[in-house]
Amino acid sequence: MANTKSSISLRLIIMNFLQYAIWGAYLTSMGGFLGKIGLTDYIWLFFATQGFVSIFMPALMGIVADKWIPAQKTLSICHGLAAIFMLGAGVYAMSNVDFVAQVGDVTAHYTMGAGFSFVAFYVLYTLSVAFFMPTIAISNSVAYNALEVAGKDPVKDFPPIRVFGTVGFICAMLFVNFMPDLGHPAIKFQHSYYQFLISGILGLVLCGYALTMPNCPCKPKSSEKQSFLEASGLSAFKLFKQGQFAVFFIFSMLLGASLQITNGYANTYITSFADLPQFASAWGARNANALISISQVSETLCILLIPFCLKKFGIKKVMLISMFAWVFRFGFFGLGNPGNGVWLFILSCIVYGVAFDFFNISGSLYVNENTDKGIRSSAQGLFMLMTNGLGASIGTWAAGMVVKAIVPAAQTVEGTVVNGAEVIKGWQDAWYVFAAYALVVGILFLILFKDPQKAKASGQTA
Questions:
Q1: Contact status, residue 169 vs residue 202, Cβ threshold 8 Å
Q2: Confidence of residue 232 (pLDDT cuts 50, 70, 90)
Q3: Cβ-count burial 56-71 (b if 16+ within 10 Å, e if not)
Q4: What is the mean pLDDT of residues 145-166?
Q5: 149-177 b/e with 16+ CB inside 10 Å = b?
Q6: How deeply is 432 buried, as exposed, middle or buried, from its count of CB atoms within 10 A (0-12, 13-18, 19+)?
Q7: What is the DSSP pairing of strand 412-413 with strand 97-100?
Q8: Side-chain half-sphere of 48: how many Cα atoms within 13 Å?
Q9: What pLDDT band is residue 236 in, cutting at 50, 70 and 90?
């Protein structure tokens, strides 16, 4: 038993590393690949799809984990299926894209081949993310259970473990940024189908590893008469009856709208600077994924601040800090460039750690601390539904509409973009629109959400 307790942190570190390395292999670079093969207008759809499936899949699989299949086994099943479909998407792309070198190897990239079917590729991708997205919440439940079984405090002990999830994300990002396509060395994995293959392979590894996690018992069957919500596992939705929980979930959705915007468009935006002569040789314009990875480094460090900040400031102030950090995240992106303004990109990446962690990790802990054990996996799934489901899908769709309306399409003459300055100006204006949205959400949250600690002190319920 002692050995189990002493080793649980290391085991959870490995699980979190793999969990987010799977995502990091393609999340920030997929937009670059899609743009290169001629699917720029559909980038928003691929990222919104993660939101669409999160509307129902995390809650559904959370119910399965709560009622029928122990969470660690549910986690394994989901990763196994997600990996198979992601490998399918990668192999399909490999078989149906063509190599293009417009001007030597400098602008080498892949493009859709004659046999490429958008529907086939999109369906494989959709099935993969449909099973991957629930694993984010389920892996949290598995970790919280393992820590409690080992006699540890999840609020204190989970954030340092979760740091290694971000480390895994960073390692995968950097790997696909610098690793060259063996067949065409001028193309890095960040603009290649290999990113999907790497993600699928890692998913198969975690599929097996998840089965080694401590057992997460399903909720015992009750002999008492149960309502439909209790029998079906939808009890977590009753949390909406609690005033401040309802406000919390609504703002989870509103803030979730910001989550995938930079993942979807940052790589494409930064790479587009290479079309301007003054930035053509800038390191950042050629290594967008590596530059963006600073965001994940910041995320790693900021996770360690969560226990202190929650204790010092409380959940409301921590969430407010996150919301206003999104304003700076988007604003600095609009102001920066990969040349003499690269420091603004770096600042944007630094504040991202606060923007992402202070809501997602703190929000997950808030749900865990304020819900009954019997519905925790379902409640985590509901939190995922509101943030990465409704919020991310609506936000990514709206962001796509903003980009389409404001950012002009690149016009090329003999392989050279001739309206690069107009394209960059459009992107900058789009980032300012996103910053304004985050500011409005932060102000409304300040007014409408009551601090839970103060509410308990005054005898009010959530």
A1: no
A2: very low
A3: ebbbbbbbbbbbebbb
A4: 86
A5: ebebebbebbbebbbbbbbbbbbbbbbbb
A6: middle
A7: unpaired
A8: 14
A9: low
Report which of 377, 305, 374, 302 is spatially closest to residue 143, judged by C-alpha positions. Answer: 377
Residue 220 has pLDDT above 70, yes or no: no
Give the domain ranges of the chain: 2-215+235-457
d(CA 198, CA 25): 7
- Position 302 scores a pLDDT of 84
Calculate what percentage of the chain has a pLDDT beyond 70: 88
Summarize pLDDT for 85-133 with one digit per residue, the tens.
999 999 999 999 888 775 544 567 788 888 899 999 999 999 999 999 8
pTM of the model: 0.75
Is domain 2-215+235-457 annotated with CATH 3.90.700.10? no
